[in-house]
Amino acid sequence: MIFTTFCALALTGAAPAKPRRIVSLNTCADQYVLALADPAQIAALSPYGHDPELSAAVGRARAFRTLKRPAEEVLAIRPDLLIGFPSGGSVVGAPPGEWRTLGLASADSYAMILTQIRQVAAAVGHPERGEAMIARMNRDLAAQPPPKRRGVAAYYQRRGYMTGTGTLVDDLMQRVGLINLARRLGKPALSQLSLEEMIAARPDWLIVESGSEKVVDQGTEMLHHPILRAIPRIRVPQAWTVCGGPAYVEAARGIAAQLDGAAHKGTARVNAAPRH
């Protein structure tokens, strides 16, 4: 590897010059960069920037180059700002002090998303855009009325994995008034729950990834077991929950809309395609 990982830079003191060649190193960073930087500032996005299953901003991302061999390409681009990994060592081959880096840990709450928006906005030289985005997200979330139906929900994934406490999904559930089954059972951020245990727990809802309607392998087959059919499902695109960012608002709206739809139709089968 030409470079290993990237160290976070504390952006303090006098504001540096606006970067002219920004490279994003992961899909989560992509979404902040696309929302806050000028198009002319963006030199490259992460390898999965064009993947609609992972990127909630794929519509914008398609206009930009994505990295295929990050180690070699980053050295060739010679960016003046790298945004991506949360911690690490140095960029091998980079002249000392030439490349600024900003690390981003995985956001596990709305509060952390707001912090990261401000960090990225300052790093790309547009702090006012960060504040405008935060104001818009706060306004949109405040305008969302509480769902008419609530209850206990399990975010259930392939092979019986369940998303637990201290995660962005858990934060979203609390926002829309749902009780996370994993929290009730005292489960960690990620755990496995068998079909028998799930039925015994009797959740009111299963939250599953959009696109899980089809069985594509043994991992997804579990979600289609007959004993789960009686539990209504809320479908959310993976791209809305895999990263923090502006898609948080879409995820909250989508879940609330499906809960309200179920109040009228007795089901939560609403198509929730990402908006760009």
Automatic annotation (TrEMBL):
Domain of life: Bacteria
Annotated InterPro entries: ABC_Transporter_SBP (IPR050902), ABC_transptr_periplasmic_BD (IPR002491)
Classification via PROSITE patterns: FE_B12_PBP
Annotated Fe/B12 periplasmic-binding domain residues: 21-274
Pfam families in the record: Peripla_BP_2
Gene3D superfamilies cross-referenced by the UniProt entry: Nitrogenase molybdenum iron protein domain (3.40.50.1980)
PANTHER family per record: HEMIN-BINDING PERIPLASMIC PROTEIN HMUT, VITAMIN B12-BINDING PROTEIN
Protein name in UniProt: Cobalamin ABC transporter substrate-binding protein
